[in-house]
């Protein structure tokens, strides 16, 4: 049996797990993240779940189930708009057990514990100072999105911070982390802050207003703290003030001296090859993730937005170049974990598009939902669920483009599309964005998902992108395409 292919997003299309933190335990990679709800009214509404895949097959992701639910938290009955289960992280403690650090929008960073990486975690407590006062209750800047890291010498570090000013999620007199990302060292009990960290300790990744002359200008810290170590160098991953991009900083120690390293990825490819926000290749929104080495290759994990807002985000990943200690910004693709281009034969869901735009371009999705009538978007039928995937691209109107990268098209000769809607016109296919057509497929109105007659594809060589642009009237719901 042929090996499965890996796509982006790499989890089933009904699954919405943003803020991904990948970790390797044994012969599997485990994904920990928030859990959005399809068409949710706010961020992180669902319980924490876990997915994992064998290291030798990054296309074979397995659902590990709910690992921690709201009813296990002492404050789990609070309203979910302000107290969603936000971006978590985890590590293995000195006792061999696994510790899950999370945040619910209040003051506290909390911890749950389990004997297995993906078992049912039990509530342990809040992170606190040695005198018992909870972290976040001493007039510190706002705690947010915990990142936890265990160094080679066994020392345990907790990272946090939120640097967006004048934001409604700053509650009860909380302050933004203007000076940037914070770090605290923990005792082996995984709850108590070590002496010497009673005062806020900043690692040197500044927020807005504190970056002048530091090298971080334009990429100041916002949120999404995550730490990794490759060789003898520490790599701090974070979301910048631009929000759509993940950046990194490096140091020779885990608590200070970090210098700006560069951009890892933008979920609209902004900044890649000089691309501006006005030329973004996708509708953008916030971004959160991390770096990991798997099988001798390096990957950046991130997320994309769906359904016209930021509240239904999905996990994606890309292989990333790592040269002379530096990571180079990588483009978003449809085949991120596949190890190469997708085959030029078979049926592909439209939901794996890595580029999506209307004739008027794209935009940054704000914190509030809003549909512009001309915009295409990723969506699904029905309500949030854990089965029956049917995600597709809705509302492709005249000039809308969906891009897929990459395919080995040497032996591909025909191409067909499936969808429905009141659209009448043609779907023009090219291998470059707005490039010369290599195929054209007629589209007519249909109330049911219809496969339209296949068209000849001009001969291609090597790995190529495929861009589908609708030209005509009405709206087309793009479900899938077939290569033969």
Proportion of residues in β-strands: 35-45%
Considering DSSP H and I runs of 4 or more, what fraction of the residues is helical? under 10%
Mean pLDDT figure: 95
Largest sheet composition: 7 strands, antiparallel
Q: What's the number of extended β-strand segments?
A: 34
What's the structural domain tally? 2
Catalogue the unreliable spans. none
- By CATH, the architecture of the largest domain is named 5 Propeller
Spatial extent as radius of gyration: 23 Å
CATH fold name of the largest domain: Tachylectin-2, Chain A
- The CATH class of the largest domain, by name, is Mainly Beta
Structural class: mainly beta
Organism: Bifidobacterium lemurum
Protein name: Beta-xylosidase
Site (Important for catalytic activity, responsible for pKa modulation of the active site Glu and correct orientation of both the proton donor and substrate): 145
Keywords: Carbohydrate metabolism, Glycosidase, Hydrolase, Polysaccharide degradation, Xylan degradation
List keywords for this structure.
484 residues; mainly beta; Tachylectin-2, Chain A; Jelly Rolls; 2 domains; 7-stranded antiparallel beta sheet; 6-stranded mixed beta sheet
């Amino acid at each position: 049996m042929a090996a499965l292919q890996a796509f982006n997003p790499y989890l089933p299309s009904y699954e919405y797990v943003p803020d991904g933190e990948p970790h390797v335990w044994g012969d599997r990679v485990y994904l920990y993240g928030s859990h959005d709800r399809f068409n949710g009214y706010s961020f992180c509404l669902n319980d924490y779940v876990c997915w994992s895949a064998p290291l030798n097959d990054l296309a074979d992701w397995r659902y590990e189930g709910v690992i921690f639910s709201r009813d296990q938290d002492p404050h789990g009955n609070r309203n979910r708009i302000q107290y969603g289960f936000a971006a978590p992280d985890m590590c293995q403690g000195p006792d061999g057990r696994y510790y899950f650090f999370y945040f619910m929008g209040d003051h506290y960073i909390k911890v749950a514990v389990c004997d297995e990486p993906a078992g049912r975690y039990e509530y342990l407590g809040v992170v606190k100072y040695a005198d018992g006062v909870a972290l976040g209750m001493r007039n510190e800047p706002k705690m947010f999105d915990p990142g936890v890291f265990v160094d080679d010498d066994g020392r345990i570090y907790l990272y946090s911070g939120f640097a967006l000013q004048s934001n409604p999620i700053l509650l009860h007199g909380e302050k933004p982390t203007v000076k940037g990302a914070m770090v605290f060292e923990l005792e082996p009990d995984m709850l108590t802050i070590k002496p010497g960290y009673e005062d806020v300790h900043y690692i040197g990744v500044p927020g807005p207003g504190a970056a002048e002359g530091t090298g971080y200008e334009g990429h100041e810290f916002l949120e999404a703290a995550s730490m990794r170590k490759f060789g003898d160098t520490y790599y701090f991953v974070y979301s910048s003030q631009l929000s759509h991009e993940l950046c990194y900083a490096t140091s020779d120690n885990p608590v200070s001296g970090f210098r700006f390293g560069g951009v890892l990825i933008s979920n609209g490819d902004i900044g890649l090859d000089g691309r501006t926000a006005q030329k973004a290749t996708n509708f953008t929104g916030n971004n959160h993730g991390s770096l990991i080495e798997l099988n001798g290759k390096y990957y950046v994990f991130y997320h994309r937005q769906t359904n016209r807002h930021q509240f239904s985000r999905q996990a994606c990943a890309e292989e990333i170049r790592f040269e002379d200690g530096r990571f180079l910004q990588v483009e978003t693709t449809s085949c991120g974990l596949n190890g190469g281009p997708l085959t030029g034969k078979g049926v592909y869901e439209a939901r794996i598009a890595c580029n999506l735009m209307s004739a008027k371009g794209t935009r940054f999705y704000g914190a509030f939902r809003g549909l512009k009538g001309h915009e295409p978007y990723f969506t699904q039928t029905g309500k949030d669920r854990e089965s029956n995937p049917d995600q597709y691209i809705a509302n492709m109107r005249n000039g809308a483009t969906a891009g897929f990268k990459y395919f080995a098209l040497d032996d591909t000769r025909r191409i067909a599309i499936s969808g429905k809607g009141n659209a009448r016109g043609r779907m023009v296919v090219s291998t470059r964005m707005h490039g010369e057509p290599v195929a054209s497929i007629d589209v007519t109105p249909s109330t049911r998902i219809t496969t339209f007659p296949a068209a000849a594809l001009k001969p291609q060589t090597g790995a190529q992108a495929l861009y589908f642009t609708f030209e005509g009237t009405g709206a087309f719901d793009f479900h899938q395409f077939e290569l033969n």
